[in-house]
Amino acid sequence: MSSSSTELDLQVGVEVFLTYRGQVILDSKLARVLGLVDRKGSLLNACRSLGLSYSRVWERIFKVESLLGLKLIEAKRGGRGGGGTRLTSHAKMLLQRYANAIDQVRPCAELLNVVPVTERPLPDLVVIGSHDPLLEHLIGIARSKGLEDVKVYWTGSVGGLASIVLGEADIAGIHLYDPKERVYNIPYIERFMLKNEVVLIGGYRRELVFVLRPGLQLNSIDEVFNGLANRELTIANRNKGAGTRVFLEHLLSEKNINPSRVKGFETEFRTHFDVIRAVAIGKADVCLSLKYIAQLYKLKTLHVTWEDFDYVIPINKLNKSEVNFFINLLKSSRELILKYDGYLPTEHTGKIKSR
Fold first, then answer.
1. 355 residues of the chain, pLDDT tens digit each
2. How many angstroms separate the CA atoms of 12 and 61, rounded?
3. For the domain that residue 319 is a member of, what is the CATH number?
4. 263 and 319: one domain?
5. Domain residues for 170?
6. What are the distances in angstroms from CA 240 to CA 9, 66, 155, 252, 257?
7. Are residues 282 and 136 both part of a single domain?
8. How many CB atoms lie within 10 A of CB 326?
9. Looking at the domain assignment, is residue 246 inside a domain?
10. Which of 8, 70, 172, 223 could form a disulfide with 160 if both were Cys (CB 3.0 to 4.6 A apart)?
C-alpha cells in the first residue's frame, strides 16, 4: 500500500434505521424528507430542496405505507395551488421514534452527514404520472418553444392522481382501467374524490401488447397466460401504481391466475423502456407494454388492447399560462400522434372529456 493511500482523510459514519418485519421503513434520507414536508407543506418542495428524485421518494413512501398499512402523508387545505401536503399522526410518530433512536446512539458517534437544505423555486409546470414516450416528445417540443422550466416525474397513474390530490401536480397523465364499468380513467377521478375539482382532458389511444423475448415462439396471448400460470415464463412488471400493472392484475384475475404465483411479478421497472429492455436482453420472457417501444427493439408482440391515455388537470390550474400552453400543444398534435406506431388520436384529443 502506498503512503498516499494511508494518508487518505477517511471518516466513519453511522446510519440509523427503523425496521418493520425485517424491512427498513425509515432512514436519515426519508426522515429529512418527511421533516421538510412537515415544515414546507409540499413533498415536491422537500424533494427539490434535498436534490432527491420526486418519483423515487414517492415510490418509497408508497411502499412503506403498503408495508405498514398506514398513511404517512395526506392532503391539506391551503398550500400551493389550493392544496398541500401534511404528515399524518403515524408519520409524526415514526419521526419521533427516529429522533429518540438518534439520541440513544449520539454519545457513540457523530451521526449522519446531513445534506444542507437550500430553497429551490418550484418549476413553472409540473407533470406527474404515468410514463409515456409521446408525452416525453410533447414536453421536448414545449421546452424548445420556450417553456423551459418543466419537470416530469414518472410515478405511475395512481401516483399522478395522488399528486393532484396533494396539490403537487399541474397535470397528471393517467391510463387506469376500471373492470366494473369497463372504461378508463373517469371512475378513478370519482374514486379519488376529484370529481368537482378537476377536468379530464382527452389524450390519445395506445396499443398495449405482450412483448416477447427474442427466440420465444408464442402465437397467442392464451399461450402467454398458460406460461405465466405454469411458472414457465418470467414477466417483467411495472411499479406499483402504474396503470399497466393495474391492467395486468385485471387480466390475471380474469384468467384466475394468482399474481403472487407469477415469476417476476414483484420485480418492478419504472418505465416502459425499462421493462422492454429487460425482455430484449433476456432477463425476462415477456412483459405487458407499448407496441411503439417494442417496435423500436424489433421484438415480437401480441395485441392485447387499445387503452385511453388522458390528462387530469385541477380546475384552478386552467388559467395558468403554462397549462394552457400544454393543452394547446396537445390539441395540435394529431399529426404527430399518427406518426407513432401504436398510437391514435381521438375525438377528445386536447379537449375536455369529463368534468
1. 455 556 777 766 677 888 998 899 998 889 999 999 998 889 999 998 888 999 889 989 988 998 999 999 998 754 444 568 899 999 999 988 888 887 777 665 455 555 555 667 778 999 999 999 999 999 999 999 988 889 999 999 999 999 999 999 999 999 999 999 999 999 999 999 999 999 999 999 999 999 999 999 999 999 999 999 999 999 999 998 899 999 999 999 999 999 999 999 999 998 999 999 999 999 999 999 999 999 999 999 999 999 999 999 999 999 999 999 999 999 999 999 999 999 999 999 999 998 8
2. 28
3. 3.40.190
4. no
5. 125-197+314-336
6. 42, 10, 9, 15, 18
7. no
8. 25
9. yes
10. 172
